[in-house]
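dude i think i finally got it to work??
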Amino acid sequence: MVRHIYSCPLRWSDMDALGHVNNVVFLRYLEEARIDFMFRLAPGEGSDSFTGGSVVSRHEIDYLRPLIHRHEPVVVETWVTKITAASLTVAYEVKDAEQVYVRASTIVVPYNLAKARPRRITAEERTLLEEYMDDGVKTPEGAVAA
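look at this
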């Protein structure tokens, strides 16, 4: 299985009053990594895959350890755990060489902006996503995904 690797800088404004990265900021880190992942999957000119929009229908996050602000970035690893006809589940780990700070997952629904409604995942998109597929990975709550 291949994982997408995103190097995420920590910003001074990410901290809460205790010097930890605020829990809500982790959603921003996941979004940055997911967008980077999807843009890298896009096949380029002449293809409609991954063009248009998508919406998030669900997030799950397990906060495992506090992340103290520092100058070194964290790594956000991203991969796919489930693909259905009209959604995909993206899993993440926010970590560094020593530890994992967050495990999370997001259900993403492709969206047709012109028609203002969800759309199906194309065969080309499915093929590109399957390269990052791991259906036996632990989900945020610790159970093995089916």
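Helices lie at 25-41, 123-130.
im so relieved honestly
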